[in-house]
Every structure is written in structure tokens, then in C-alpha cells.
Write a structure and sequence with these properties.
Blueprint lengths: L10 H28 L1 H8 L1 H5 L12 H30 L5 H38 L3 E3 L2 E3 L5 H18 L2 H10 L5 H6 L1 H15 L4 H36 L4 H15 L17
Antiparallel strand pairs: 1-2
Helix pairs in contact: 1-4, 2-4, 4-6, 5-6, 5-10, 7-10, 9-10
Length: 287
């Protein structure tokens, strides 16, 4: 079995292969879009549940086309989420022939873990971050200086709020995978990551400020998990190095375990060592 596909292809054939993969992605995305467009209202009904639980039971739209385009955006959002495994598989089929078997074995677990971590981030945003943020943001309703202040969010603005949370948290939860790939490629080391904790806090704060709405609660809800994932990546890299060192120690011919096993095998084959006196019973001298 060859370690890599040694077939040489001209640039034109690579472009044809890329076009074929892109067509598969577009067809998959289009089919998923039309399916999700049929269920767009049901999907949006799921997305508004955190808003309902926060005590807000009304959404408005001030533009004639806003409700329709919101439904289109919901269908596109759901289609991207639904077709992601197929998109990732097409990307893998295009890249995999140019990788060695060892590189495929190293990269494939990260590819399989990507939707899991992204789903975990989106679930954290939907069940934890969004309810807390909505409770905080809607708490400004009431009588302010004799004027009744009431929140009337629009359907388009609320969908933007939801997609920023879900995509932002989903992408942020991919940080351990990104750091482990960079470390595996030799771009960064575990020691460099450990020494850069203060910079990681600043970078996490900047990412949280960009991906979340402009309030402190939403920023902290992303900042804390993001830095925790940074520490998790360092721990995962350390465990990976420890397991690799143990595997190398077991496979090394001169290791203590190998020497002990070889010595035990030699004694078993040769039999027990002869006692002093040539193996005779009763001591030395003539019988």
C-alpha cells in the first residue's frame, strides 16, 4: 500500500477536480436551502424560544420585505448548518490525495471533531448565553424619568442577534482544534502557548467583543469559555505528548522494558543457571 497517491496531474485536471467538488457543495447547499425554506417558520419558531423565555412575546417588522427576507436568511442559515458534513467531506476528498498516510491519520480526527465542537458551542450559546444576554438586555424596559420604555425588536435584528451568537460561539469552540493543528504542524509549541497566556486573555477579549453584541454580559459569556478552551488545548497537547513519549519508550529497543523482556526470554530458552560445582549434588570432589 502506497503512502501517498503518486499520480501526477496537470494544473488543469486539479482545477477540474476543484470545480467538481464545488459543484457538489453548491448542489448540496441548494437542496438543503429549499428543504429548509419549506420549514423556515418552524425553524424560526425554535430560534425565538430564548426570547419568549426572557419575557418578550412580540416581534415587529417595519419594512414590507423584511419578514420575507428574514425567512430566506433562516433557510440559508439552517442549510449551511445542515449541509456542513457534506461540505467538509468534499473538502477532505479534494485535499486528501495530496497528503501522506501519516498526515491523513493526524488530520482526520480534527476534521471529525470539528462539527462536534461547533455544535457544542452553538448549544452553549442557545441554552446558556442567549437567555442570560436577553434577560440583561430586556431589563432596561420600564418607566425611565416618567417615560415608558419598551423593547420592540424587529425580526431582522433578532435573527442577526441569533446568528451572531450561534456562529460566534460555534467558531470560538473550535479554538482547541486550531491550536492542536498548529502545534502538530510545528508552527507553535506547547511552551509558547503556556508563556502566552496573558496575550491569550487579550485576544479572547477582542474576539468576544467582535462576535457578541456590545454589552458586558454577552462579552463575558464568550470570554470565559474561550480562555477555558485555550487552557484545554494546552492540556490536550500535553497529554498527546505524554502518550507519544510512552509509546516511543515501549517501541524503543534499548528501553528498560524491552531489555527486561529480552532477558526473561533468554533465561526461559536456556533453562536455569547451573549451580556451583558443575551441577552435581553433594558438593565438589570425586564421588
Amino acid at each position: 500500500m502506497k503512502d501517498i497517491d503518486e499520480t501526477k496531474q496537470p494544473l488543469l485536471e486539479h482545477l477540474i477536480e476543484l470545480r467538481r467538488r464545488l459543484l457538489w457543495c453548491l448542489v448540496t447547499l441548494a437542496v438543503a436551502f429549499f428543504i429548509c425554506f419549506h420549514f423556515a417558520q418552524d425553524i424560526f419558531a425554535v430560534l425565538v424560544q430564548p426570547l419568549i423565555k426572557a419575557g418578550q412575546g412580540k416581534l415587529i417588522y417595519t419594512d414590507v420585505f423584511e419578514a420575507f427576507f428574514t425567512q430566506v436568511k433562516v433557510a440559508l442559515f439552517a442549510a449551511i448548518m445542515l449541509s456542513f458534513p457534506v461540505l467538509a467531506m468534499q473538502l477532505w476528498k479534494f485535499v486528501a490525495p495530496g497528503l501522506y498516510a501519516k498526515e491523513k491519520k493526524a488530520f482526520l480526527p480534527f476534521l471529525l471533531a470539528t462539527p462536534v465542537f461547533f455544535g457544542a458551542g452553538a448549544s452553549f450559546a442557545y441554552f446558556v448565553a442567549m437567555p442570560w444576554a436577553l434577560h440583561f438586555l430586556l431589563s432596561y424596559q420600564g418607566n425611565v424619568g416618567g417615560i415608558q420604555q419598551e423593547a420592540l425588536p424587529g425580526v431582522g435584528n433578532y435573527l442577526t442577534f441569533v446568528t451572531r451568537f450561534l456562529f460566534g460561539f460555534g467558531a470560538a469552540f473550535l479554538l482547541p482544534i486550531l491550536l492542536m493543528i498548529l502545534e502538530r504542524a510545528g508552527i507553535v509549541t506547547r511552551e509558547q502557548l503556556a508563556k502566552s497566556r496573558r496575550y491569550a486573555v487579550v485576544a479572547a477579549a477582542a474576539v468576544a467583543a467582535v462576535l457578541t453584541p456590545p454589552d458586558v454580559v454577552s462579552m463575558l459569556l464568550l470570554l470565559i469559555p474561550l480562555y477555558s478552551l485555550y487552557e484545554l488545548a494546552i492540556l490536550a497537547i500535553r497529554i498527546t505528548h505524554w502518550r507519544a513519549a510512552r509509546r516511543a519508550a515501549r517501541e524503543k529497543p534499548g528501553s528498560a522494558t524491552a531489555v527486561a523482556a529480552a532477558d526473561l526470554g533468554a533465561r526461559t530458552e536456556e533453562g536455569p543457571e547451573a549451580p556451583p560445582g558443575g551441577g552435581r549434588v553433594g558438593g565438589s570432589g570425586p564421588i
